[in-house]
Design brief:
Length: 137
């Protein structure tokens, strides 16, 4: 699925918005999307299971590792150029379905942290009694 996102964002940056370095912009977009999803998922899991809000430093370390991994795979190892030139992945062979998926994921990346802030704020009230029963605190 990340290959599909890479291909769709690359086409967007090379065809719709003409930029000099579409691979670099595509990597930046993937890293940006990863940032929002990482923060939302880590915060949800830590609050639900441990009643703990993860400090910013740990979020930054996870983001750094994730971004380095994306840049390593798609930039340094040249998988991005392979995806664009040879593989050209699409979801079920449909360009329209792949484009809709890429657009929705991009929009959801901005909405998800806002939703997670509200969910985790209320979750502490409901999870804390269950947490005390299970762990005796």
């Amino acid at each position: 699925m990340i290959d599909v996102l890479y291909y769709m964002y690359y086409l967007f940056y090379s065809k719709k918005i003409t930029v000099n370095f579409p691979h670099l912009n595509t990597l930046g977009t993937l890293c940006y999307i990863f940032m929002f999803w990482e923060v939302s998922i880590v915060e949800f899991v830590s609050t639900f299971f441990f009643l703990y809000h993860v400090p910013v430093g740990i979020h930054n370390m996870i983001l750094l590792l994730g971004n380095v991994l994306i840049i390593w795979i798609y930039g340094i190892k040249k998988r991005g150029k392979y995806v664009v030139k040879k593989k050209k992945p699409l979801i079920r062979g449909s360009f329209r379905l792949s484009a809709i998926f890429a657009i929705l994921l991009f929009i959801m990346s901005f909405v998800m942290p806002i939703i997670m802030i509200e969910v985790t704020k209320d979750m502490k009230e409901y999870v804390e009694p269950m947490y005390r029963v299970l762990f005796g605190k």
